[in-house]
Design a protein that fits this description.
Elements lengths: L1 H34 L2 H15 L7 H32 L5 H19 L2 H10 L10 H40 L7 H15 L2 H11 L3
C-alpha cells in the first residue's frame, strides 16, 4: 500500500512538473519579447524596411528571425549567467524550480535596469496600483524597460530614415523640374535608395550599431 502511494505521488509530481514545463515553454516567446533587446531590434529593422520603401522585402519572417539571432548574440552573457546560476543547479537537482526562477531573474533585472529610462521608471512607479508598494517590482520594471526600448528604437529609426527621405525629396524635385509629375517618385527613388544602402554596406552597419549600443 505504501509503495502504491509512493508511485501515485511520484506520478502526480511528474504531471505537475510537466504542466509547469509546458506552461513555461508556452510563455517563453512572450518572456523573450519583454525582458530582452528583441523589441528594440525588431522595431529598428521594421523602420528601416519602411524607410527604404519596401513593403514585403525582407519578409516579416526574415526580419523576426534576424532580430531573434541578434538578440541571442547580444543577450548571450545574460543568458549564460542565468544558465549558470539557475538552470545548472536545477538540472543537477540541487535546487527547486522556485529557487531556480528566483536565481535566474537577477541577471535579466540588471540588464533591464541598465537600459531603462529613469524618467519612464519613475512615471510607472507613480501610476502603479496602490497594491504594488515595491518600486523594484518586475511589474513596474518590465513595462518601463519596453517603453524605453521602443522610444530608443524610434530615435534610431529617425536617424536611419533621414537619408532615405532626402533621396525621396531630391528625386521628387528632379521629376517636378522635368515635368514628369505623373511618375510616382517612390518608384524612381527606390533603386537609388537600394544602391545607396548597398554602397554603404547597410546591413552590416546597422547590425553592428545595434550590437554596439548594448556594449
Amino acid at each position: 500500500m505504501a509503495d502504491l502511494d509512493a508511485v501515485t505521488n511520484g506520478i502526480g509530481r511528474n504531471a505537475i512538473g510537466m504542466m509547469v514545463l509546458l506552461t513555461a515553454l508556452s510563455l517563453a516567446p512572450g518572456i523573450a519579447i519583454t525582458v530582452t533587446c528583441f523589441p528594440f531590434i525588431v522595431t529598428v529593422l521594421s523602420i528601416l524596411r519602411q524607410s527604404i520603401g519596401l513593403q514585403q522585402s525582407p519578409p516579416n519572417m526574415l526580419i523576426v528571425s534576424l532580430s531573434i539571432f541578434l538578440t541571442w548574440f547580444i543577450m548571450d552573457p545574460v543568458l549564460s549567467e542565468a544558465w549558470r546560476v539557475a538552470a545548472v543547479p536545477l538540472r543537477d537537482g540541487q535546487i527547486t524550480l522556485e529557487e531556480a526562477i528566483a536565481r535566474g531573474i537577477p541577471p535579466f533585472r540588471h540588464f533591464m535596469e541598465l537600459r531603462t529610462n529613469p524618467e519612464t521608471l519613475a512615471h510607472f512607479s507613480e501610476i502603479a496600483p496602490a497594491r504594488i508598494d515595491n518600486p523594484d517590482s518586475l511589474s513596474i520594471l518590465i513595462p518601463s524597460f519596453m517603453i524605453s526600448e521602443i522610444q530608443r528604437a524610434f530615435e534610431i529609426g529617425f536617424l536611419i530614415a533621414l537619408p532615405f527621405l532626402i533621396i525621396d525629396l531630391v528625386v521628387s524635385a528632379v521629376l517636378m523640374s522635368m515635368g514628369m509629375m505623373m511618375v510616382p517618385p517612390a518608384v524612381v527613388s527606390l533603386p537609388f535608395k537600394l544602391a545607396f544602402f548597398v554602397v554603404v554596406d547597410g546591413w552590416e552597419m546597422i547590425a553592428g550599431a545595434l550590437v554596439r549600443s548594448y556594449q
